[in-house]
Fold each of these.
Amino acid sequence: MANKQKKKRTKRYQGADAKVTTPSVVRVSAEERSRFKEWWIVYGQLVRIFGTIAGIIFVIILLAIGIIGLL
């Protein structure tokens, strides 16, 4: 025979020794951005990744041209 589980207490304690919860205040500040700054925030990471890849490819091409020039 399985033991019946005891119900958990869901009622909040309201006595003198109850834990007092202070309301949390969330401060939000707005910043006025230009259209370019807004675009950069959205797509900046992609631009940096593609720029890095393009730079690496450019260096590889320069090295290949230099090696071919030595032959």
Amino acid sequence: TNRIKIHEQLQKTNIFLNNIIRCSVDGIVVVDTKGNPLIFSEGAERILGYKAGEIIADKERFRRFYPIELAREMKRRMLSDEYGPTDRLNTTQISLYNKKGEEVPVNFSAAIIREKGREVGSVGIFSDLREHLKMRKDLEESRIQLMQAEKIASLGRLAAGVAHEINNPLAGILIYAEILKRDMEEDAAGHQHVEEIINQTLRCKQIVTRLLEFSRQSLGHKTLVDLNDIISRCVKLIGHQVLFQNIEIEQALDPALPQIFGDPGELQQVFTNLFLNAADAMKGLGRITITSRAAPQRDGVIITFADTGSGISPILWDKIFEPFFTTKPPGKGTGLGLSIVYGVIQRHGGSIEVESPPGGGTTFTIRLPLDSQEIQAQMGL
């Protein structure tokens, strides 16, 4: 009778332990002293894509996701007190490999199983870190975007104040220089110097104008906008400029592109700046390709600007949207064009990304949402 009770109790305990293993979201793997897999839990199946039968029946398949070198290193750590109590391994991050051969980052802990002091196997428990690491990466990207937006907002306020302070004396310099030029003979001594004063003053006024554009939060009324129409108007506008005479412009615009809610003036400024940026990068010779399409979930639109210029080094991708950052020689650029683009896209609830593969050429990808209520709320309307 006692033997039957003990047997029943062992059966209950065994069922209970099997249920714990089965219900665990973590992967649980048990091996014997020779490294042969004995248990491969449902959690392990979900994380790695293998079925328990595949692993237990084929040791070589087991070694594909848990290579022998990794197994030896984990065993060394378990036998050492460097990583936790002897015979145990505190949680550490490692990479396993799923059925597709993809690397899977996991939190891994392990322990040696002993019976009466004799080692009979070991157990490893691991949890999938992919979603956690993705969330952490997304959070870091959001933090960087927030810092960038705050930096642009604060610099915008500073730029507005500086621009207004500079505008008045510049206007005075320009007026008096033009009066002086008018009263001088064209071949008089100093005429060229006065001409240069006027040219440089006009350049300063252009910089001040860009500063004011950069600091401005809105250029007009928000309404339903046809981005294809704005792009086409920009192409007509720049087509007459000398800089674009040797540049081929290709448009692949989706005729069924949904309208978005936004400021037509600001969005035209975005596309104009991107055209000018591409033309400068190609030194007036090459091809610009503009595409428009609905986002896959049809919750927004995607606009791409691709040029055949010299490209942008990857180490500069995070800097090009910063105010006053430019790769142009001194005196050739203000470093505000892409900052203005970034600010406008942010205010419209969208995003802009840059890609510049080796071999030249740069592509800017703009994503703008369709949700007018969400955007109006963001704009404080």
Amino acid sequence: MATFFREEHRGGGAKVALMGPMTKTFLHAIHDFVGQAGVDIAPFAKGKGKDGVTQERLARFTDSEGILYIGKAQEKFNIDPGHSFPWLMRSSVMCNHFYFYVVDKDFGPLFVKFASYFPYTARICINGHEYAKRKLAFEGIEFEALDNGILSCADPTRL
């Protein structure tokens, strides 16, 4: 992180004061994308599983691929707490995370998760079982699907 600030901000070093405006810009970009894509942000209720929400929406999704929805959840995140020390310190806070759920014709359902605080860590989660199901269907190989797997397959060697 220190290298990013040193190189991107002309040697100014890592400063917490620079992170606030960057975060606002990042959040505006997410909300602009939501408006342009015509999808909604669905807040995840505490205790309600993300998988259940996604399965409900997948059941109503009719396109071969596209954006399913964007979920929002408060989760723990490691940040610099903003103390006035000449160095960065790690701390943990609750911050918003955005889950971009999409359906891809090759990979099936997947999500990209972004933290709303600098450094905006991202994670892509692709389910290998869904990928295998898509490939089998594309090749015309019969199989019996489970929620998160395959029970049987006409050509097991293709798995």
